[in-house]
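Before the break, one more example. Copy the sequence into your notebook; we will annotate it together after we see the structure.
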Amino acid sequence: MGWFSKISRRGGAQTPRTADRAPQASAPPLSPSPPSRVRRVERAADFPRFQATASDQISSHPGDGTSAARMRFRAAFTPSQPVVDRRMFAGRGEVLTAMIRSIEDQRLHTVMYGVRGIGKTSMLHVLSQAARDARYIVTYVSCGASSNLDETFRAIASNIPLLFHSQYDPTTAEAETGATLKDLLGPNPVTVRVASDLLARIVGTRVLIILDEFDRCELPEFRHNIAELMKNLSDRSVRVQFIIAGVAANLDELVEHIPSIQRNVYALQVPPMGPGELRDLVRNGEELSGLTFTDDAVRAIVRAANGLPYIASLLSHHAGLAAIDSGESLVKIEDVKIAMAEALAEFNGRLSRRAQNHISESLDKQSIELLCALAETAQKSGGYFSFEVLRQKLSNPANVARCIEIIERLEAREILVQAVDDEFGRRHRFIEEGVPSYLWLLSEQSRLSVARERPVKA
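Here is what the structure looks like once it is written out:
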């Protein structure tokens, strides 16, 4: 049976109040509750409820005995949120070491880029913890489409205590009352020069400024200002460094005005996680949740994740909940199949109606299978692929010709894929970023269905 015993949800008969009855030598048999009342009790018990309170405590209402297990499991796998608990952070040791050395030894700014779901924000949180342990001041800003220098810098300055300003003694009234650098800014919009001069006054500490989701910025002026600010800080050896992160296929896509700051920047393209790192991610979740994943289940998750920790966490999350729903503490390959169906439904819901309709109605099975072969590569490269990659993936010349014909037809109609000419030459990309992951999971679901109970090889 696993962990959980089932608790009956049926409401029992209610005992009449004795104060309302006349004394009798022997009480008559209890009358059952009216059928309508029993139905109301059953309906109340069956009505969907939250398993935990807003303070993360188990609800007091009768449940099915799985609430505690669900709470532990929800903390172990959080696909919709970045990893903030070091115990759940898997792999990336070499990448984090390289980042720390670039910050600490070379005093460089860092620009981190890669595809969505590769784990950039999780790495930023873990790096922030390590920096705070070393007594750095870390200020984190999540950028938006309308981000500008004035608003962003005021948010940054509000997290830097005035006591680290060279012209303010720690015993001054302003420093003792918790004033920040923001209090020194006037009403006029902040310029690059004003920001540079103020940060140049910092002494006695080091500051890391993290700008996450930088790809969302739509104002070229803001990107240009940040690049100029980074250059000014480096030229003046200021004790402040930027860490910029965002979705991009290359450095130029993320930061404007690159030539002037190349020597001041450590550019990091976050690589896909290796199979061993993904297995560690699942095993870390096992330790925190109390569930156990079979080897077949882990191999299936690792293969389907295709190097993306987000997908590994998403599949582990759904598979674990499927096992809990079945009253089991062992997550099996059948649970992973359920997880894939859940994940596919999520990805499909994020696609445009046009993409949904074309995949489900306009493409035949062979066409989808050929596009799935490209999705594996596109997942790891920002949605891009080339015909050269296509020829490597599909050894059959007939399949190559068929796939090229499909791609050119879709590009002509501006559906699913488009051609791109840039410094890398002629390339092609999926228009919607969710399409490669959807197609790849679709192919993995099909492969598992065909394989049935045969071992899944990573």
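Residues 387 and 404 are 8 Å apart (CA to CA). The beta strands are 109-114, 137-142, 207-212, 240-247, 265-269, 292-293, 330-331, 384-385, 417-422, 425-430. Try to locate both features in your own notes.
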